Amino acid sequence: MKSYKVSLHIITPLIIHTGDYYSIFELLPAKDGKSVLLIDLDSAFSSMKDSDRERYYAIMDSLTSDVNKDKKNLLQARSIIQNVTFTNTDIIINRVQAHPNFIQGMDSNPYALIYKIFKDEITGKPYIPGSSLKGALRTAVLESLRYKDDQYPNTKLFKNNRPKNFQPTDFEMQIMKKDKMATFDIENDPFRFFKVSDLLLNESDVLFDTVRVIGKNSKQKGIPIYTEMTESYFTSKKDFIAQGEITIDNIGLEKFISQNKFGSFLNIETIEQSLDTFWNKILNNRKHPLNQDVKNTITELCNKNSLKPLRLGRFTQIESKTFKIKQKNPIPPDINIYGGISRSLIRGVIPAGWCGLKIYH
Predict the structure, then answer these.
(1) Using an 8 Å Cβ cutoff, are 240 and 231 in contact?
(2) How would you classify the pairing of strands 206-214 and 343-346?
(3) Can you tell me the distance from the alpha carbon of 170 to that of 172, in angstroms, rounded to the nearest whole number?
(4) What pLDDT shows up at residue 48?
(5) In 10 A of CB 29, how many CB atoms?
(6) CA 296 to the chain's CA centroid
(7) Biggest alpha carbon distance in the chain?
(8) 146-150, 225-229, 320-324: lowest mean pLDDT where?
């Protein structure tokens, strides 16, 4: 086994959802208008006066399918919990920074789904699942190979002498094997010898904010998405660094290469070179130019600390997938690695998930 320590510098807020949500009752707007309070609901109910508890349950029992009426009642029920929290601060688990737009949305919309991100249960610090970083590295390597060999997908495939429905992963195998008729098989994927640990952040700071979809002519569309996210260098001018490890099973990989005649590209040097070529393309995306302040921050921080730029997590558009292949016309001019017309931005301005990676070897 070959192991390499890695550090991941969070440059813009990173959002990787767990699939769970905060209850509108366990996350309350604070009085300062700049933060929210994460509370222990069980303790809140235990601390209520009997009259408040009865009023709370009466409100909840009165809920109907009338959205407007229920909205008013839910806000009243939450105000009861807020009053208890403000008079008994032992209920508060944590006070967390929140953008005014997020707080305003919470105050007016009790139906808002507030997404959770991954955090360590013991320390409370956010962490980045290793699979997210592995996916970003895999994307960089495969696109670099594709670009170098000028490859485009063959969608007319057969398996066991029968037509096969094409999947983007089939194109990944075509790239790796340099074989137009190749189809994906997990047993023939050399990336299974490549592991990335979860990466734990050095700080527990998180931020609650909104993400807006920005469409054509920079117009916002749809409803805002309410979400937890990591803090970042861009939003706080403070270093947020996650530590982890990359492991390559070099013995297993060498045996695989000998048997299958491909996969020699999977080494730390090729990975680093791929990061330079692929993610710098995305950083200089002509279709969706980055906010100049964000771009300057990414460039300065990466140059200063010898980091490789990359992007992770939700709301990173097509960059978060290996390839988005146009099914109707998967031939040149492109395979759409630069994204579609719309993109999702924090506060309608900040692109999520930009990081800088350093591999120690």
Answers:
(1) yes
(2) antiparallel
(3) 5
(4) 93
(5) 19
(6) 22
(7) 75
(8) 320-324
Residue 332: per-residue pLDDT: 46
Q: Can you name the residues that pair with 126 across neighbouring β-strands?
A: 119
Question: Which of 22, 224, 23 is CA-nearest to residue 115?
Answer: 22
Q: Is 335 left (phi over 0), alpha (psi -120 to 50) or beta?
A: alpha
Return the closest-CA partner of residue 242 out of 310, 317, 179. Answer: 310
Nearest alpha-carbon partner for 166 in 157, 177, 179: 157
In the chain, the amino acid numbered 152 is Y
Q: Tokens at residue 131, please?
A: 């699979």
Q: What residues pair up with 212 in beta bridges, in sequence order?
A: 345
Question: Rounded CA gap, 133 and 195, in Å?
Answer: 10
Q: How far apart are CA 262 and CA 172, in angstroms?
A: 13
Q: Are 276 and 310 in contact (CB under 8 A)?
A: no
Q: Which residues contact 220 (CB under 8 A, 6 or more apart)?
A: 212, 213, 214, 348
Q: Which two tokens stand for residue 359?
A: 């591999």
Q: Report residue 154 as tokens.
A: 């063959």
Q: 2-10 and 27-29 as β-strands: parallel, antiparallel, unpaired?
A: unpaired
Contact between 357 and 8 under an 8 Å Cβ cutoff? The reply is yes
Amino acid, res. 7: S
Length of the chain, in residues = 361
**0.85 exceeded by the pTM?**
yes
Q: Fill in the amino acid letter for 199.
A: L
